[in-house]
Amino acid sequence: MRDNTLIGYGLLVGLNGTGDKLQNNAFTEQSLIAFLERQGVNTRGAALKSKNVAAVTVTAVLPPFSRSGSRIDVTVSTMGDATNLTGGVLLATPLYGADGEIY
């Protein structure tokens, strides 16, 4: 029996002007465009200038014998140049185990 370390990549939204500068972080802009397109919003060709979004890594430790729906603590860390993540909302982010499965 052992813990299962999980990791994922996601977007944190709703930051108060402290998010990534999109012109400095292509991965944040690409992720935001992909997210919006999945929601039916076409942003191609538009110059996005949001400072309220940050690309983040999400890590967690899943204890042994955890069941579906169990609450776990996660750590959210910025990947870009966001200065503060306080008050942000993490969009649904798949968390992957070492086996490649989504937990």
Task: Describe it.
- This protein is an alpha+beta fold and 103 residues long.
- 13% of the residues lie in helices and 26% in strands.
- The protein has a four-stranded antiparallel β-sheet.
- The model has no long low-confidence stretch (mean pLDDT 93).
Output the keywords.
103 residues, alpha+beta, four-stranded antiparallel sheet, 13% helix, elongated
Query: How would you write the strand order of the largest sheet?
Result: 3-2-1-4
Strand fraction band? Answer: 25-35%
Unreliable parts: none
Number of helices: 1
Biggest sheet details: 4 strands, antiparallel
Number of strands: 4
Question: What structural category do the secondary elements indicate?
Answer: alpha+beta
Radius of gyration: 15 Å
Helix percentage range = 10-25%
Averaged pLDDT: 93
Q: How would you sum up the global shape? A: elongated
String of helices and strands = EHEEE
Separation of termini?
17 Å
